[in-house]
Amino acid sequence: MWISQITPRLRGVRDPLDSARRRTAFRRRAAAALLAVALAANAVAIVWLWVHGGNLHPSSTGAGLTSAGRLTGLFGAYLALIQVVLLARLPALERLVGFDRLTIWHRWNGHVCIDLIVAHVVLTVWGYALVDKIGVGSEISTMLGGGIYPGMITATIGTGMLLAVVGTSVVIVRRRLRYEWWYAVHLLAYAGIALSWFHEIPTGNELVLSRIAADYWRALYLVTIAVLVFWRVLVPLTGALRHGLRVSEVTPEGPGVVSLRITGRNVESLRAHAGQFFLWRFLARGAWGTAHPFSLSAAPDGTSLRITVKGLGDHTARIAQIPPGTRVLAEGPFGVFTDDRRRGDKVVLIAGGIGITPIRALIETMPGDLIVLYRVVTEADVIFRAELDELCAASGAVVHYLVGDHIGAGRDLLAPAHLLELVPDITERDVFLCGPPAMAAFIRKNVREARVPRRQVHAERFALI
């Protein structure tokens, strides 16, 4: 039994762990404030550029439309750069908000970005057509073929690339595309943003009027490129050379589920923690082209890392065929689904399906009063049963295996009343929740309906855009 379970806290004695968590929380708040200030400062600078360009008092309807088009264009380009930075694998940013939340911000930022770019195109073409007193079709022809507006063809191609990315992001389309194709199309976003550069500097009214404004805009692009190249290219390549990771074992865990043990040099220097994940790229035929996020399914031991994968698609189904000795590229560790997030000694860990992987790693290292709820559809879906029983017996934790479908006899599993029956003091506990997105969202709603405060709920979503 863990010492923290049997040793009461002394009244008036400050817990060093609590003090460390408070310091960490303060640093996160300070970093969030600095980030917000930086984003707001650039937004203010963009508005100033627009005002300085003489757009505040248009002389006609056409001029007003083009002025609005310029503002939407500036902000659309700015959000496109933010879009790149959000998933540039910045450790500080990822530690601040968590990788899964960054993907959500990335998704919504992308929607706003493309809306602004489309608005820019429509407003600008319409406005110039009114000013030139010609039809919209004629204005488009003049813009693309007249040689008056440099970079318009490349900008049009870039906009088409961004629209292609948005199209593949629509859920119904994505489900019909292989992940590899969806991933490749998303790389077009980088090309689309790059092509817009050749339009913005030569023809951007606000940037043509001021050398300082143009240099400021160039600096935004250069900083974004530097961040992208350093964290997405140089850091992974350096890590690959330094650690030389390889698959050492492939172990079946259940129907369609395998565990991979990965070893290499200086593995401890990765500083991975239970509950975190890496983006894994296996250099084997049919697998090297994409990187997928898989959580650690065992606490890092300093010499190896273990992940457990369920075959749910083309890529994950091929993982079981990866032979030992295969080289591995790993980006990470990522994720804030760790013991550092808890607020007290009592915790309930809820896993849905393959979401047991980070939960199992947390059980191995997390002290305190633990209750584990493992939700699956059938008995065959239970993995790590022997390991979970052994870990819980050694630490004094309690584990409940909850088996049943979602529409029949098992429909009330982990409902609010059932949660309170299993864990009467759940409102006093931190809740760590992980599972497939739909299941996790459903259980999270039930946890909140069981009166667990939002600040005590910590979730890891198995989704990556």
Oligomer: single chain
Assign a percent range to the helix content: 40-55%
SS content category? alpha/beta
The DSSP helix count reads 17
Q: N-to-C SSE series?
A: HHHHHHHHHHHHEEEEEHEEHEHEHEHE
Number of strands: 11
Gross geometry: elongated
Q: What percent strand?
A: 15-25%
Q: Taking all residues together, what is the mean pLDDT?
A: 83
Radius of gyration from CA coordinates: 26 Å
Spans of at least 5 consecutive residues whose pLDDT stays below 50 are 1-14
**Major sheet: arrangement of strands:** 9-8-7-10-11
**How many structural domains are formed by the residues?**
3
Distance between the termini: 41 Å
Question: Main sheet?
Answer: 5 strands, parallel
Descriptive overview:
The chain is of the alpha/beta class. The chain has three domains: 22-234; 244-334, Translation factors (Elongation Factor Tu (Ef-tu), domain 3, Beta Barrel), CATH 2.40.30; 339-461, Rossmann fold (3-Layer(aba) Sandwich), CATH 3.40.50. The protein has 17 helices and eleven strands. Strands 9-8-7-10-11 form a five-stranded parallel beta sheet, sandwiched between helices. Helix 17 links the parallel strand 10 and strand 11. Mean pLDDT is 83; it is low at 1-14.
